[in-house]
């Protein structure tokens, strides 16, 4: 049996030395084929490794949601997978707000077991301590960890302990930071072993949506305490322990994850014993594997590949939902030149968004004429108030004599909302040149952008970006990209701040009536559209291609699958 303090060594050795092989064999240039023995009674899900993490709390967007959130972990609440898109209990069994709407009591499901793995054996079922720990962790309130002050002897024996302690706890929680989760919640506490109390600083009707978001997974406090005692809290995010229908069996970094059915799962047991998540291939590689029957489900297909694949109806089918996302061009409100509203409208009128969507997305996206996507429940009141449809002659008349030169920054990371940002940027530059505007391009990745933002070197006038929400609540869409709270942050790349806009968002949170909230969000949206801090470009459909042997395909409103709901015909 492995000693606990040697768990990392045991993990790699017991996983057939796969991770060690990936670290030592730098000369290997091709991804290994998934071993045949892993495919018995199994599903192969092909995706990419971008943004992959075994703790979705710590990432912006990426593979983690489908591979981790919906399979390894559970949340307190889920979103009903129908037109109602209602919040339904998951690990919770029910909830109740106080009369003043500032206290939320959540009752928890009993008999929920954590995964038993080679690196952790739970001694108890899930209870309120796990929920309190998980929420306090993303709030930065680490009451459950031993503090350095309580461990003077340990620090004396190991002078590096204080450094390690600080570094291991410097996780970022991008989603929760973007919605000011810390500002919403005054405290989280356990009332009893199966009841949690959340005290809010003010009434907030979005709180259940955020607890149902793809990032709000529940971790094991017992596992975290053991890791903390072993000076290894960072392992909480690399060797996962959850309560979901699947648990990790093998992991080959940036190559594949093997998920094994959790036979102690509290919900309906999966009929599929093994799921292999192939992380190794590019879009063209995934296409080749799909055609060679090495993939059962293909995520993030190239838009141009979809029509060819679906022409073979005997083998392949597709499923799609309207995505809670937006690709946009943002105007930097910190630059004097782009503070001119009339100029921003003219620049917007010079850009042919219909052409962008046709050439970049083919039939997998729609031109966005609003900020709130139609997949949100608030879109029922989306009222188009556009002053900047494509009008090249009007734009040219205003712009051509001004001899403008704009710094145009482009985030090159391919995202759900923009599969080819470089091509889109070049097309926008062409449109602006036709109107007499010179453009200087700068291509960069998100981590470089964050560095330049922090150092005050963000001298762009326009920047190509987007947003992918983790819930269907419009507050979690509008606030991160346009509120004063996120001004000068990496989500609000327009650096736009309007007290009037924020006041409407805040007012919308104070009523539990969804229709009133939807009206307020539309008022806020129309205000932003008229001020043009950003130009909406596209809403992308969440799309997957699958082999017809896969049955019961049902995608959530956020574009995710639950592997436990799928069934397989045996022939491959």
The fold-level CATH name of the domain at 325-540 is Dipeptide-binding Protein, domain 3
Q: Briefly, what CATH class of the domain at 325-540? A: Alpha Beta
Morphology call: globular
Number of strands: 20
**Rg (CA only):** 24 Å
Helix content: 25-40%
Give the distance, in angstroms, between the N- and C-terminal Cα atoms. 38 Å
Q: What does the oligomeric state look like here?
A: single chain
Category by helix and strand content:
alpha+beta
Mean pLDDT: 85
Give me the CATH architecture of the domain at 325-540, please.
Roll
Number of helices: 20
- In what range is the share of β-strand residues? 15-25%
Biggest pleated-sheet summary: 12 strands, mixed
Write up what this structure looks like:
There is one protein chain. This protein is an alpha+beta fold and 572 residues long. Among the domains are: 73-225, Dipeptide-binding Protein, domain 1; 325-540, Dipeptide-binding Protein, domain 3 (Roll), CATH 3.10.105.10. The protein contains 20 helices and 20 strands. The protein has helices at residues 7-14, 18-24, 64-69, 128-139, 152-157, 161-168, 174-178, 181-184, 207-211, 221-229, 283-291, 303-310, 341-349, 353-361, 392-399, 421-434, 446-454, 475-482, 499-509, 514-531; strands at residues 42-46, 77-79, 87-89, 92-97, 103-108, 185-192, 195-200, 246-252, 256-261, 274-278, 297-299, 316-322, 325-331, 365-367, 405-411, 438-444, 462-468, 534-547, 550-551, 567-568. The strands form four sheets. Strands 1, 8, 9, 10, 11, 12, 13, 14, 15, 16, 17 and 18 form a twelve-stranded mixed β-sheet that branches. Strands 4-5-7-6 form a four-stranded antiparallel β-sheet. Strand 15, helix 16 and strand 16 form a beta-alpha-beta unit. Helix 13 (341-349) packs across helix 15 (392-399). It is globular, with a radius of gyration of 24 Å. It starts with 6 loop residues before the first helix and ends with a strand. Mean pLDDT is 85; it is low at 1-31 and 146-155.
